[in-house]
Amino acid sequence: MEDLSKLTAGELGERESQIRREIMELRFEHATGKMLDTAKMGRTRKNLARVLTRVNAQKRS
C-alpha cells in the first residue's frame, strides 16, 4: 500500500474509485464461487477505509 499522506485529493478520489470497483468485482467472484483468496475482500475493504480516513482528514484540515 502506498503512503496515502503524500497523495492529493484528486489522487485519493481516483484510488477510492479503483478500490470500490475492485470490491464490486470481488463480490461477483464470491457470488459465483470463483474467489480463491477470501481474505482479499477484507483487506480491500480495510484499504478503502484507510483511503476514506485520509480523505476526511484532508477535508478537516
Largest sheet: none
Low-confidence stretches: none
In DSSP terms (H or I, runs of 4 or more residues), the helix count works out at: 2
Percent strand equals under 5%
Your description of this structure?
Helix 1 (9-32) packs antiparallel against helix 2. With 61 residues, this protein is an all-alpha fold. The protein is built from 2 helices and no strands. It is 75% helix and 0% strand. It has one domain. The chain starts with 8 loop residues before the first helix and ends with a helix.
Architecture blueprint of SSEs:
Layout: H1 9-32, H2 39-60
Helix pairs in contact: 1-2
Properties at a glance:
single chain; 61 residues; mainly alpha; 0% strand
Task: Put the structure in a nutshell.
This protein is mostly helical and 61 residues long.
